[in-house]
What does this fold into?
Amino acid sequence: MFLNNSTLEGKRMKTLGMAFLLLFLCFGSARAEVRYTVEALDARNSLAPQYILTEANGINDNSVVVGKSYCGVDRAYMWSNGITQDLDKSNPLHPYYYLTSAYGINNTNQVVGTAWNQGPNRGFLYNNGSVTDLNTVNSLHSYTLTDAFGINDRGQVVGKAYNQGVDRAYLWENGTTVDLNYLNNSYPYFILTKAYDINNSGCIVGNAWASSNPSWNHSFLIRNGQVTDLYSSSLPNVYLTEAYGINDSDQVVGWATVNGYNRAYLWNNGNTTILQDKIPSSTGWILTKATGINNNGQIVGTGLLNGYTRAFLLTPVPEPSSLVALGTLLTPLFAFRRRRK
It folds into this structure.
């Protein structure tokens, strides 16, 4: 039996389609099996040794990191590819405010954090050398906005406020402040105490405690106006106590209690990964908390490096086994194309 050219072409296209389907499935598996390289930001710190980068709290899509450093006193910093900037050096509110910690950064390099003014802390917004005390543009006059933790590309800010002896999670936008507890209809026994981050869809993560037990800490996610308790994880004996960062894919990072120890985690659509298990065991790191994640999957946080508290940057890399599988599949595809030519 002889096959005409159109029949042969049809079979070739069907074979090529099946090959690309297998490639897609293999690539999806490669993405699921991500591991990470881990870098100490102090290893590339232009202000060393005067400044020790003790915390990395936020990262944007350009891999610009913000956090807290120590130089005899705490100072907010911005780090980009080894170049470190003390944000307090360009602070026009001296000597009344000192920028002690930077927590969040968006893709236009607007930074939010905490300032100290010899009294209660103040949440600040830093924008290209200009600093705003958010309390001066706060519509909830009975609330003190003590900390600003996260900012998205729309300029929406989330953080912690203090009102009548109780911490309250808030959302701030262009001078209008909202107590997020008024949006919580899902868990009436929850008090949302801190909002740590907000993505470009308006999803918010943070920390809550029970009104009957202030020592009871649970991480939460607000998505489409609904509050979700993230405390119970997909892993045995792992409890998600704090949720610090969220990206536009709704991937969440924070710290979990793992058999009594604090460990950094990644939560992705209900599945929990302990990040300690995804770095080489020989690095000397213990990753205690993850505080920020960007849309490229890079994660920043704080851990112990040979017993010292240091800021880290995790960068995802595919598993070697996944790369081999991809190469094995690609080889016959290229050979098939050469035969067609």
Observations:
- Residues 156 and 173 are 5 Å apart (CA to CA).
- Residues 36-318 form a domain with the Neuraminidase fold (CATH 2.120.10.60).
- Helices lie at 5-32, 320-340.
